Amino acid sequence: MQSCSLVVLCIFLIPCTATYNIHYYVAKEGEALIVACPLYPQAGFQIDWYVTQTNESIPAREGERRYSSRDMLKFLPTLIEDAANYTCIQHSNSSRESALVNVKIYPKQAGCVTPDDLIYRFPIGLSTIYCPNLDIYNNSGDIQWFQNCKPLREAKYLSRKDFLLIIGATEADSGNYTCQFVHNEKGTIYPVTATVEFKFKERRASFHPQIKIPPNNAVEKVKLGAPVTISCSACFGKGPQEIAILKWLVDNTVIHRFNDSRFHEYPGKMVSARGQLSCMNNTLKITQVEDNDFSSEFQCVAINQHGWTAHYLKFKKKESRKKQRS
Description:
- By secondary structure, the chain is mainly beta.
- It is built from 2 helices and 26 strands.
- The protein has 3 domains: 23-106, Immunoglobulins (Immunoglobulin-like, Sandwich); 116-200, Immunoglobulins (Immunoglobulin-like, Sandwich); 205-317, Immunoglobulin-like.
- The protein has helices at 2-12, 321-325, and strands at 16-28, 33-36, 46-51, 56-57, 66-69, 72-75, 84-91, 95-106, 119-121, 128-130, 144-147, 150-151, 157-159, 163-166, 175-185, 188-198, 205-213, 218-222, 228-238, 245-250, 253-254, 263-267, 271-272, 277-286, 298-304, 307-317.
């Protein structure tokens, strides 16, 4: 009952106030910056903006260098002194909620230097770089793209509505890319730039495991009492693989569970040259062939997320040279 009474008082006697976590914006000096209030705009509610530290009200007058436009706060253009915390308050006769926005302005940098705070970092991509926050601005021209302050003019770079496509991207294309466009405010244009870190990620492609050697149902001639080495090689796809297992079995038993010290397995690492198949090897060494090995079945098994493939091999006794001559 006590909590219910508090709710009634909140609704009918005093405005309710809710404060949300602070949101951060970073920009360069001399550019357009549009900040969005983190609150969801509601019909019939008024939104006011204030400088948090001084409680200075920000006017909603177009044409001012800094003015509010309902849920947007515009800096046209930014100045160093704009760096501050701002509060947006959405209210009606019965409720009130607020949110904080922090604005940080970096002075113009000499040379080709971008402060770390100004670099957007998105999940690793394959060949596409998006220009962030473009939908907030009234862009009236084409987007220009730069890398290390140099315009991208090669045919491999294709600029589209809000992204840059790199044809045939490789690891050498990793780096910082800057998109530059203009914001049109009642016929006056202001520059806007955003720098995005691009890390190339090779496309992962996997398929059902393919065993290259030995051929299936192979027969290996070996000499009784002699050591023997047999290899298995399998490919799993292109690029890094999430799951790739290559094992030797003897009579359906994996080597590390096979109770015979004569058998030793030597799995290799995945080898993947750029643009080539990702393959691995596994070598089985037997220190001394015994009679019972000729009745055993050796299996090379390759496994990944698509399933498994097995190739089978048997030993055949190699006759000695003396016996062959006789």
